[in-house]
Amino acid sequence: MPAGTEVVLTEVGPRDGLQNEPGVVATADKVTLVRRLAAAGLREIEATSFVSPKWIPALADADDVARALPRVPGVRYGALVPNLAGWERFRAAGLDVAAVFVSASETHNRRNVNCSVAESLERFRPVLDAAREAGVRTRAYVSTACGCPYEGGVAEGAVARLAGALVALGVDEISLGDTIGVGYPAQVRALVEAVAGEVPLSGIALHLHDTYGRALANVQAGFDAGIRRFDASLGGLGGCPYAPGASGNVATEDVVDLFERAGVATGVDLDALVDVSAWLEREVLHRRLPGRVLRARLGERERAAAARTTT
Amino acid sequence: MPAGTEVVLTEVGPRDGLQNEPGVVATADKVTLVRRLAAAGLREIEATSFVSPKWIPALADADDVARALPRVPGVRYGALVPNLAGWERFRAAGLDVAAVFVSASETHNRRNVNCSVAESLERFRPVLDAAREAGVRTRAYVSTACGCPYEGGVAEGAVARLAGALVALGVDEISLGDTIGVGYPAQVRALVEAVAGEVPLSGIALHLHDTYGRALANVQAGFDAGIRRFDASLGGLGGCPYAPGASGNVATEDVVDLFERAGVATGVDLDALVDVSAWLEREVLHRRLPGRVLRARLGERERAAAARTTT
Questions:
Q1: b/e map of B107-142 (b: 16 or more CB within 10 Å)?
Q2: Would you call A69 helix, strand, or coil by DSSP?
Q3: Residues of A in contact with B258 (CB under 8 A)
Q4: CATH 3.40.50.300 fits B8-310, yes or no
Q5: Phi/psi of residue A25, nearest 5 degrees
Q6: Please, which residues have CB within 8 angstroms of residue A279's CB and are 6 or more apart in sequence?
Q7: What is the pLDDT of residues B121-161, one digit of tens each?
Q8: Where are the domains of chain B?
Q9: Which residue in B186, B245, B262 is closest to A1 by CB distance?
Q10: How far apart are CA A238 and CA A248, in angstroms?
Q11: Which residues, including other chains, have CB under 8 Å from residue B122's CB and lie 6 or more apart?
């Protein structure tokens, strides 16, 4: 890879990870989490979600979290904004990136938000208009971009057309989500090529899940196809802890190490990030996170500590 | 990927996986394991090791295992053969592929087998001569090919020269091992290119560990560079269960799913392989294996069974 290459990671753990946590995470811990992620070098952090607390009770304190976030130069905070009611909360909190979300497959969209894809786009329109007027950056998540749990295969052309429609509505960045982790490298390359026909490469991010262990292989495939923006979740936080085998976002540490080893800058201090995940595991969630680099690094630290003790 | 493309997987679980198991696995269970792996479609199976039982007590029953293996047309059984004493045991057992092993880094080789790399090659010479005379296929493992836990970086050129020396000694297949899992895709591509200057691509296999979650990304990189032979271990069996974060071979199920999704034939029946790993977990090892596709598939089966029960 050429020297000087950089990637931008969007940390989605505080939103996409914590929204699935079964226990209550204190508002203060959520704020601490985002603050520490920014201190570790993450520059795009999805902090919470302004969907209805009825849908996602775990993020019912979104307004409190958002208002308590420390402003850090160069750091943008994002949040999900499903409709104009969410937009008002987003604006009151003064965050930076408003994210809408829609599925590439009709059945998944209907099961997720109880309306068609076309109806979702119409719901976004006033949010995106308001964001443009306010000079607020927007992103759109396109779920099931590599496959749908209800419909099976999803055509790359359909994803590309949806991405194009979102850009036409004013979205600044499209995050293509492999929601169920079925994608494979050749598919990701083909998907990126198809979507790049509608959206500039710099406006495309990949949001890859690790259900079958292929998230990093797919990150690499996306990078090879020209993508420089990737979503990730600290420690691999996310997925559903109740469903054995169900797995969430690719771990931020794993993405950082993949790139930094190859000389691609992420801007993230990996040791500091491991500290954040270790704190989250031990002090907040009281369970192990699935990230591989996190586990390997903590194992190295334990062995180094044991060696110091015995000598 | 072009239609009709095939890869050959060498299943190393019965040797590389079980040699690290802390508990005693019954000889009959080892034989059953190999038999079921062959029935699932694996055509190259490393069944055991003829190193001294003093070194690897877990495989002290190598002679009994090897003699009990059912002959299956088209299936080759391999074993580690460190010296002429091991060769005699290998021949008595009538196996098909004799494997020698050496590290790409001097320090790792010395710590592993207490001699220099050059001395290792001299020890192999009579084994490889005897194998050639007997018409027995040989492979050589080159460990630490992407990095050494003691020396750090390992130069691709050094690995290529060692591979060339092994081929000059008569080795049929070189298995390049990323023993500590530090490799990344661009490095694997460069390594393959370097070694391919000394060894035909068809004589190179990749043996990738998943310590940092990059094994599948590296498998894909190797494939993209022309490699068609990969080592893997059912369920990701291997590594050291006592060292948190230490991780072993890439899981065979994960490699099979990576390739089959992309239309590359492995010859392996994934459902049958998941059955083998599930049996090994539940009936033999009494612990969970780390393979991702295994966990996902077993989760799908549980949910399907629950759905049948409730309807």
A1: ebbbebbeeebeebbeebeebbebbeeeebbbbbbb
A2: coil
A3: 184-185, 212, 214, 217
A4: no
A5: -100, 125
A6: A36
A7: 999 999 999 999 999 999 999 999 999 999 999 999 999 99
A8: 8-310
A9: B186
A10: 5
A11: none
CB-based burial, A157-177: b 16+ in 10 Å, e otherwise: eebbbbbebbbebebbbbbbb
Residue B243 has pLDDT above 80, yes or no: no
Q: Is A182 on the interface with B (CB under 8 A)?
A: yes
Task: Tell me if chain A has a CB within 8 Å of the CB of B285.
Answer: no
ipTM for the predicted complex = 0.93
Instruction: Among A212, A243, A302, select the one facing B293 at the smallest CB separation.
Output: A212
Per-residue pLDDT, B201: 97
Touching A: B residues 210-269, CB under 8 Å: 210-217, 219-221, 243-247, 251, 254, 257-258, 261-262
Which string of b and e fits A210-234 if b means at least 16 CB within 10 Å? bbbbbbbbbbbbbbbbebbbbbbbb
**Partners of residue A247 in chain B, C-beta under 8 Å:** 292, 295-296
- Name the amino acid, one letter, at A53: P
Name which of B249, B297, B292, B295 is nearest B271 in CA terms: B297
Q: Are strands A97-103 and B8-11 parallel, antiparallel or unpaired?
A: unpaired
Residue A245 has pLDDT above 70, yes or no: no
The arithmetic mean of pLDDT across residues A187-213, rounded, is 97
Q: Inform me whether the pLDDT recorded for B104 exceeds 80.
A: yes
Q: Do the beta carbons of residue A246 and residue A239 sit within 8 Å?
A: yes
User: What amino acid is encoded at B156 in this protein?
Assistant: E
Q: How far is A35 from chain B (nearest CA, A)?
A: 26
